[in-house]
Amino acid sequence: MSDDGRQNNGSENVPSRQRTRFPGISSRAYEHPADRSALVALRKLSGFDTVFKALSGLLPERSLRLLFLSDSVRVSDQQFTHLNDMLRDACYILDLEKVPPMYVNQDPQPNAMCIGLDEPIIVVTTGLVELLDEEEMRAVIGHEVGHALSGHAVYRTILLFLTNLAIRVAWIPLGTIAIMAIVTALREWFRKSELSADRAGLLVGQDLKASMRGLMKLAGGNHLHEMNVDAFLKQAEEYEESGDLRDSVLKILNVLPRTHPFATVRAAELKKWAESRDYQRIMDGHYPRRDEDKNTSVSDSFRESASHYATNIKTSKDPLMKLVTDIAGGAGGLGGRVRRGFDGFTSTPEGNEGNEEPPAESAR
């Protein structure tokens, strides 16, 4: 369905160009399998919403709302009107009935977030507004509206609360360990939720190049004339393929404290999804509806998530993932491969230089 039927009557804003609209779309349409399986399971828990609403008194949500209201600029028909247009467009395209409040916060660091338990609010920094052009910003606002539609704002608020709590109880023996274990698991889920929201941003902007430019700017600043999309995506490929088992371990350690995947990885993942049959089916109007969410099977969602991870492991070019695949397949010679993969952690014993096997690059 096209949005060309909307009329600009002074109170309603229309997109700068025609975009496909998705009436009644369920967030399951664009959610990453790992994100979707977790959300489906949580939504099925009896009393889940009641518990989290009860927690709202313990969380700094009211404080945050008052803080942004008093010390940021609320987007409206009178303030940051171009952002207000984009926000209403994004909600219209994803059929989100209630438009979340959005604030612009003075901060040179480019960032955006969607938080809140009862009602989500969107915050973008001045650094982001100044960095991105209109189409790039449209994708970012669509990204945040995607968070709101999925209900991610609830879990992000919990994550912020637990992270702050871990700092406060650092003096308690084992207290930090228990909380940080939960935080680490939440961060892993949240990284997948960011991939989901990137997809929502693409559905709103419907301009893959703009989404790519935005991710490149987040990585390299406002220097597009010095950057190239193909070269940027090549970095993601090199990141996955290069190195040995030591690098695989370091990759895991580098990503553990992060709430967002690395920019090159996000770009590669989004491009892959944009070229998939799933994306094309959504654009053609074939997607899950919100009124069907209650009938979604938890077991089916977990099976889909497990299948996704299994496929990723099998097709991954990362040295550690290759090793896991070979172990599962019963490949021989694994001991030597593991030993060579970790040789760099210790110096080579004297007298063994002549007995070392040539590196894989030389063998080809």
Describe the protein's architecture and organization.
With about 375 residues, the chain is mainly alpha-helical. It is about 60% helix and about 5% strand. Strand 3 (about 110-115) and strand 4 (about 120-125) form a beta hairpin. The longest helix is centred in the middle third of the chain and has 31 residues, at about 175-205. The termini are far apart.
Please summarize what this structure is:
With 364 residues, the chain is mainly alpha-helical. It contains 17 helices and four strands. A four-stranded mixed β-sheet has the order 1-2-4-3, sandwiched between helices.
Question: Could you give the topology of this structure?
Answer:
Blueprint: H1 33-44, H2 48-55, H3 61-71, E1 73-74, H4 81-93, E2 102-105, E3 112-115, E4 121-125, H5 126-131, H6 134-150, H7 152-168, H8 175-205, H9 208-220, H10 229-241, H11 245-255, H12 263-274, H13 277-283, H14 298-315, H15 319-329, H16 334-341, H17 360-363
Parallel strand pairs: 2-4
Antiparallel strand pairs: 1-2, 3-4
